[in-house]
What does this fold into?
Amino acid sequence: MKILERLAIDSSSPNRGVNLITIGLIVFLLVFTFFIYPSLPEIIPTHFKGSGEADGFSSKSMYLVFVGFTILMAIGLYYLSFFPRIINYPTKITPENRDIQQEMAITMLRQLNAFITACMTYIIICIAFISKGDLSSASLGWLFIFVMLGGMTWLIARYMIQARAKK
It folds into this structure.
């Protein structure tokens, strides 16, 4: 068995719905960008303090960089989920537990992908509306940071606990 051998993953698995959410977010982001980009001002906020106040600005072309990064990240995490053998596991992998451990890792990666894509989409939409003066920059303040970091931590911690329980 090769380490980088791509797994054939059943498309009817529960992960299919999570993948569709990620794809839907990407399609929405592309359509939103197509319509909003021409109306953005030449200078947009690109960095925010914890309070949500914009403290860094760039040309509007950075907006496209954010969109491109989000799409590439989503594709990369999706692709990585086909190679669970290269992931570091919180428990020893044996022939008896390999399949369940890999399935749990794939599920965690795809859920994390959807969550991060949703967070990035939210940030990109907020940047557009803040740039146009249609939204308070507080939308990207401490509450958002807490939700984003808390959500990622919860997904990873839940996986770690489940993986250790199914040695």
Remarks:
- The beta strands are 43-48, 54-59.
- The helical segments are 15-36, 61-80, 98-131, 142-165.
